[in-house]
Specification:
Length: 479
């Protein structure tokens, strides 16, 4: 084996349930030290420190502050942008640099204290956290929303993902009730996995019907119990080293996990621009490339963790890779983002750390996936207890061609996908549509009349002919 072959030799996770809890910097330090100890590597010896963007607090120098805490002087540093694929991109870069001989060790860590932030704000108190950025930097978007999306208030994932869900539901010919029942059956087993995971945020086993009827709607047809829970206090870290350094550190061979292959692909950045709202060619290409690079296939996987922020993310992945959602291997090793916890951009660090533990305990191969933005970015990574394969890189193996978006439009259209936004009191507030236009292209529209909102939730609205009227800022739909 090439002495430069990268391997994961340390992993750590932390979940804090007491409120208020520690700040992100404290959590970074804790999991970094724990992962380094497991790797038998002094933390101050780290060659690279890479951090996933934290939503909780903007530090003046995130990587620098952690390096200072650890007593490290890494020659490589990185701080990601906002994305659920960020952990994979950082891990992939670390592995590539180790394989190229540029580094011999790297830490990738992430932490969120969004539950603590909520606790302070609810109490009307200022967060007493350290080293704030001054001035506060802009939010870490890789790309801001389209102006038409902003105008129609279509930027929250709970709405964008729900629109894609209704498009898929209609394409399959399912009724509203059938989709909800299927969602409950798919996600209830995830609650069992979370209940057995000591790091999970929600550790209660739930029945299928309870998940889809036992809590309020957020972005209809999604209920609060079937979407990612972001307001958590969680952290995770992994340490990768060269095989040569692992030998010198005395890490046993059965405690090393190898990135056999990974791939990245993109759908369109705007949901309305997607060629098919309910499906994804990008996912299929990312999976195909990752398996090809790994020299393995889906049937070779002993464990799976599909990114599960919303049901449509799971469903599009299962559709694309031809995986039965009831596969006995399960869809998650952690319990998924709705139950184990969805700490902003960090989740894939938790699924990777958990997968590494499983592969150390029983050997074999595992698939970990990531999703970024509005089902825009897709990463597929194959991990193994056996070295081999070819790493791959972050160059997209697929980039979707966008459908034209028309910002303002007056006239007839047909609903392609939709959701109804609900407030914290559970009441329907407005509908948000993506519509197909007669001459090609798509547009957004709002539904404001209560009777129409009730109608939209009572039946399948996809395929409905509507009339759009523009007020110069937004389109309003009626039928």
């Amino acid at each position: 084996m090439d002495p430069r072959t990268p391997c994961l030799v340390g992993a750590a996770q932390r979940t804090v349930r007491d409120q208020p809890g520690p700040e992100p910097l404290d959590l970074w330090e804790e999991v970094a030290r724990q992962a380094a100890r497991e790797a038998r590597l002094p933390a101050e010896r780290l060659d690279s420190i890479q951090l996933v963007y934290t939503d909780s607090w903007q530090y003046d120098s995130p990587v620098g502050r952690l390096a200072e805490r650890l007593g490290a002087t890494p020659r490589h540093r990185a701080y990601s942008r906002v994305s659920g694929t960020a952990p994979h991109l950082l891990i992939g870069e670390a592995a590539a640099r180790i394989a190229a001989g540029e580094l011999d060790s790297a830490l990738v860590a992430g932490a969120e204290a969004l539950a603590t932030r909520r606790a302070y704000r609810k109490a009307g108190e200022h967060m007493p956290w350290s080293h704030p950025a001054d001035p506060k930097p802009p939010y870490g978007w890789e790309r801001p929303p389209h102006p038409a999306e902003l105008a129609h208030e279509l930027f929250l994932p709970v709405h964008t993902y729900a629109i894609m869900e209704t498009a898929r539901r209609a394409a399959l010919g399912w009724s509203v009730a059938e989709e909800m029942a299927d969602r409950g059956r798919m996600m209830a087993p995830m609650t069992e996995v979370a209940a057995a995971n000591p790091h999970a945020w929600r550790r209660t086993v739930r029945a299928p019907e309870e998940l889809v009827t036992g809590s309020r709607f957020v972005g209809w047809p999604y209920t609060r119990d079937t979407v990612a829970v972001m307001e958590v206090d969680q952290a995770a870290a992994v340490v990768l080293v060269s095989s040569e350094l692992a030998d010198r550190l005395g890490v046993p061979r059965d405690q090393r996990v190898y990135l056999r292959g990974w791939a990245y692909a993109e759908d369109t950045w705007e949901v309305a621009a997607r060629p098919a709202l309910g499906s994804s060619q990008a996912i299929a290409r990312a999976a195909e490339a990752a398996f090809e690079r790994a020299g393995l296939g889906l049937d070779d996987m002993h464990a799976l963790d599909l990114y599960s922020c919303f049901a449509i993310a799971l469903r599009q992945a299962c559709d694309a890779i031809k995986l039965d959602p009831t596969d006995p291997r399960g869809l998650t090793v952690t319990g998924g983002l709705p139950y184990a916890g969805g700490p902003a951009s960090d989740y894939v660090l938790h699924s990777t750390a958990t997968m590494a533990g499983l592969l150390r305990a029983q050997s074999g191969h595992g698939l970990v996936t990531g999703v970024g933005m509005h089902l825009t970015k897709h990463t597929y990574a194959v991990w193994s207890s056996e070295p081999g394969g070819a790493l791959g890189d972050a160059a997209p193996v697929h980039t979707a061609e966008p459908v034209e978006i028309v910002s303002l439009y007056d006239g007839p259209a047909v609903v392609a996908g939709y959701t109804v936004a609900h407030g914290r009191d559970g009441a329907a507030e407005k509908g948000i549509l993506v519509v197909d236009l007669p001459g090609g292209g798509r547009a957004h529209a709002l539904v404001l009349e209560p009777a129409l909102l009730a109608d939209a939730e009572s039946r399948e609205l996809v395929g409905q002919a509507v009339t759009l009227a523009s007020d110069g800022k937004v389109n309003v739909a009626r039928w």
